[in-house]
Amino acid sequence: MFAKVKPNTQIIGQNIIYFNQVNSTNKFAMELIRQKMAENGTVVLAEYQSEGKGQFGREWMSNAYENLMFSIILKHVTNAPPNPFIINKTITVSMHQCLSKLLPDSQIKIKWPNDIYVDMRKISGILVENNFSGHHLNYSIIGIGLNVNQDFESIKDLKATSLKSKTGELSDRPGLLKQILEQFETNYLQMNTNSDTIEKLFNENLLGYRETSEFDIHDTIEKARIVECDKSGRLILEINAEHKPFLHGEIKQLIHA
């Protein structure tokens, strides 16, 4: 099914490696790179990941044969970006654009740094792993999980959703993968020349952008206003009229669905 996916791209997804089960698509992609067998733009896709993880090693819950779980290998056909967090922003904006077309009547937001929420419930998570030699960016592996046909409505306490939960219909997963790869390549090939647009789209679609939200900061609940996510990926909050930068892991935005 996925082996027949042929996106209209120059690089991204021209080589797709498919598994029924793998420990982690990111780990397999890493092994391809170590063995010097990775083609630029290769997509590693699995129906089930036994060790699927999100940010900071958190588990990614996903039923087999119902969702999309894949990794993209980038060996940077473009010049290495001055700040590699633009890669994170580019794939996140691309996912946001795809979901906005599919769910035009829903509120779709980016939860810093790289989750996508639909109507205050998580639908997608992204994990970007970069490898450097000094200041040179050798490669990036982008891991993506998207809830597609899994039913989350029966799990009342889980703050997650899927395309099926929102539309009531099953989605064509291969067709959806094709759309995502095409959208991402369009943005990726323009990443260095069009970075200001990517930065703007990322910030404008942040959950709580220029609004007051609650954050867990060093185990203390604080109310703060999101100013922006800067070029290095730090979230800039306005607290008591002062702008303060935070790295991911230092704070947690509290979601009240």
Describe this structure in words.
By secondary structure, the chain is an alpha+beta fold. It has 2 domains: about 1-205, 2-Layer Sandwich (BirA Bifunctional Protein, domain 2); about 210-255, SH3 type barrels (Roll). It has helices at about 25-35, 85-100, 165, 175-190, 195-205; strands spanning about 15-20, 45-50, 70-75, 110, 115-120, 120-135, 135-145, 210-215, 220-230, 235-240, 240-245, 250-255. The strands form 2 sheets. It has a 7-stranded mixed β-sheet with strand order 1-2-3-7-6-5-4, sandwiched between helices. A 5-stranded antiparallel β-sheet has the order 11-10-9-8-12. Helix 2 (about 85-100) packs across helix 4 (about 175-190) and helix 2 packs across helix 5. The longest helix is centred in the middle third of the chain and has 18 residues, at about 85-100.
Broad shape = globular
Beta-strand content estimate: 25-35%
User: CATH first level of the largest domain: which class?
Assistant: Alpha Beta
What's the end-to-end separation, in Å?
36 Å
**In order across it, which strands form the biggest sheet?**
1-2-3-7-6-5-4
SSE class: alpha+beta
**Helix and strand pattern:** EHEEHEEEEHHHEEEEE
Biggest β-sheet, characterized?
Answer: 7 strands, mixed
Unreliable stretches, pLDDT < 50, 5 or more residues?
none
